[in-house]
Write a structure and sequence with these properties.
The protein is α/β, with parallel strands linked by helices. The protein is built from 6 helices and 8 strands. Bound molecules: zinc ion (ZN).
Length: about 200
């Protein structure tokens, strides 16, 4: 073995921010619940499904033991209320992969995820650090069930429970640096959004 193999563990916020598994060299892992959180018919959902079909993204359901570890850590740092089951499972999967000897890096733009990842002594990184550009600075989420919705969706009520969606910032980093190992994202659907903040 030549050192630990680096793998990425992708959460919902990363997909919503535009992460594409085929744009990086590292192996990418996620959980099926993340797919459930992506809006049907959205670019993100299509990308998620296409990545699974092409083998660039692998889905693993983490063990109950690892889910318990992730939940416990979320409780301890006080972030469990802002994390969905999918989020918890992503963290659990990272713990599991780390236990198996991988260098697991949680790819997330969500502050609560980052807090808990830190508590679990997991490596994590926001998308911007991968040299990936993105324009989206908000996500919508349901305060009741935690389900997340991409910012370009039109609904205002949660599809699960009918609650009014809330909005929260994903991360306000300007997207300047490109490069590192990944060719970054292909152009996003900018033409659809006449007032996208991309023109500077
Ligand atoms: Zn809901």
């Amino acid at each position: 073995m030549d050192g630990k193999r680096k793998v990425l563990v992708i959460d919902t916020s990363a997909f919503i921010s535009g992460f594409d598994p085929s744009a990086v060299n590292e192996e990418a892992y996620s959980v099926s619940r993340v797919g459930d959180e992506l809006l049907e018919g959205s670019i993100m959902k299509m990308r998620f499904n296409a990545s699974i079909e092409s083998g660039r993204l692998k889905l693993i359901n983490p063990s109950v033991k690892c889910i318990d570890i992730a939940k416990e850590a979320s409780r301890e740092v006080g972030d469990i209320g802002s994390l969905s089951e999918a989020d918890i499972e992503v963290l659990a999967l990272a713990v599991q992969l780390k236990d198996r000897g991988y260098e697991a890096v949680v790819l997330t733009d969500d502050y609560s995820m980052q807090n808990v990842a830190e508590k679990l002594e997991l490596n994590f990184t926001p998308l911007a650090n991968l040299g990936i550009r993105y324009h989206l600075s908000w996500i919508y989420y349901c305060p009741a069930c935690g389900r997340k919705y991409p910012p370009d969706q039109k609904i205002t009520l949660c599809e699960n429970c009918g609650m009014q969606l809330k909005r929260k910032p994903v991360k306000k980093l300007p997207v300047r640096k490109r490069g590192v190992s990944s060719p970054a994202l292909e152009e996003r659907e900018e033409t659809k959004k006449p007032n996208a903040p991309g023109g500077r």
